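During the reporting period the student researcher (J.K.) took over the structure-prediction task from the postdoctoral fellow and processed the backlog of single-chain submissions. One of the processed entries is reproduced below for the supervisory committee.
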Amino acid sequence: MSPNTIFQGAKLKLEWAKHHIANLEATFRAYVDLNPYVLGSKENPETATKMATIRYTMELPSDIALILGDAVHNLRVALDHTVWELIGLDRDTQDHYTQFLTGKDRVSYEASCNGIKTPRDDAKKFLISLAAYKDGGGNDLYAIARLDNIDKHTIIIPAMTACTPPNVQLIRPGGSVWWEMGSPTFISPLGGAVGWGGVDPANTVQFDQNRKPTFAIGFGKIEVFPEDPIIPTLLHLADAVGETIGKFAEFVGTRAW
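J.K. obtained the following structure tokens:
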């Protein structure tokens, strides 16, 4: 059986997930292009602390959370399609319980794999080899299932935004550089500040005006990927799903019928 002729549904769902990820990235980039921020500075005269600050003037588009959920769901469904087709190839029952299996630990995961509806032990052993449980070799696949489950019950709203200005300097009254911070990152849903302590109050904060800051959105303190950047994480998960579909195809293409 040719690997190129099977698991087409899973491949289509994966491509649709990638479509949503690209849409998410484009929506966020359009938001950033509106320059929804103000870079500035503040000081505490009592502690001689000088701070470089960022303040957001616009909230993130609500579409971002919805597109994120769509991307996660299609990644999960792509995995479900692989098991659905595998069970069909094994000529067993495909029903509403048929899904890609994950587990909270190795013992529960392997028990689920051994209990799946298929007459073939090699299929069960193959599923066990994917180790799609927490902290297993397939931890990314477990994380997709958890994210999808979270999105079923609540909207996954990005809880943090990271802004990295190209360069921040503290300038003496005469114009010379007292300290250069390089490219600090402000991480906050509303804004943030980084700074220097014990400095001359006459010093001023200066940003590089020739380049714009870069931005990223992140997950909040959720069970999986706490505070990780959303778009790179989704791209990584899409790669993990693609590799898994490839493993299914390779397994079916080389097994003894």
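The committee noted the following: The chain has one domain: 3-254.
J.K. will present the remaining backlog at the next meeting.
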